[in-house]
Amino acid sequence: MLLAKEPEVIQDAAETVTTWKDKIWNWFTDMDMWMNVLYAGIKIIIIFTLTRLFVHIVFRLIDRSLQKREKSRLQMNPRRLVTVGELLKNVTTITSNFIMVMLVMGELGFDLAPLLAGAGVLGLAIGFGAQSLVKDVITGFFIILEDQFAVGDVIQTGSLKGTVEMIGLRSTRLVSYTGEVHIIPNGMITNVTNYSVGTALAVVDLPFSNSRKLEDSVELLRRAMQRLKEEKEGIPQVPNVLGIQSLTASEYVIRIAVECPPAIRSEVERQIHAYAKEALEQEELENQRGHAEI
């Protein structure tokens, strides 16, 4: 019985092998299929090449645009230009690669309609759920692009004032003069006062008794301000002793003013006070010595 079935089993196996061999042979000799594969491969290579070429051209345009901006009359922080350039290049690369992958998948026979529909729904959900994040990122991008302030600048936004320690796409970090660290979402930065742009005017008013001669007071302060300029490198110029600012029955006030960077205005005013006080103390000490010798 078993011996009788053996020829049939062998015959079925032989037919199966022959069928697979024919299928494989037909697959290898199917010219239409190979032509489609060849065309798809050529299209994929063309898509990849055009994508790389497009990215390269956009990179060159970004570099040239930033070089022109750097050489223009508007002075920008070179580090800020590098940051903007890298950000634009990253956006270009990600967008171009996404489009390239979609086109390649289409050439490979994938149905893109469900993928695009799913991506659209997902993007819509993320957009509704992360509106504040998107707002922060967009605001941060324009802060960087427009060079509104840089790391190291002293700024004030709302009631917060301090030195900019970090600028990110989502938030900005400020350090106040007392050491507090403020993390501010960029979307909440609606107006900014930058104290590090241009120059500020440090103004100090010093009162003197009417019993003291005006010429002596002015001369004393001028010598003190000259010494301040010589001993302090951060003072850009000799503070100007302007003269009497106000006068009462008991005293007169002399004003001193000097232009300086906004970030050090308070320090300059403190230095003016200190040097004026030291000059007065030195004059008083010399007067006491003169009286003692007499």
UniProtKB/TrEMBL annotation:
Keywords per UniProt: Cell membrane, Membrane, Transmembrane, Transmembrane helix
Domain of life: Bacteria
Residue ranges constituting the Mechanosensitive ion channel MscS domain according to the UniProt record: 133-196
Major subcellular site: membrane
Location in the cell: Cell membrane
InterPro entries in UniProt: LSM_dom_sf, MS_channel_1st, MscS_beta-dom_sf, MscS_channel_2nd, MscS_channel_TM-2, YbiO_bact
Record-annotated membrane-spanning stretches: 37-62, 83-106, 112-134
Membrane topology category: Multi-pass membrane protein
Xref: Pfam families: MS_channel_1st, MS_channel_2nd
Keyword Protease set for record: no
Mechanosensitive ion channel transmembrane helices 2/3 domain residues: 91-131
Annotated family: Belongs to the MscS (TC 1.A.23) family.
This protein's name: Mechanosensitive ion channel family protein
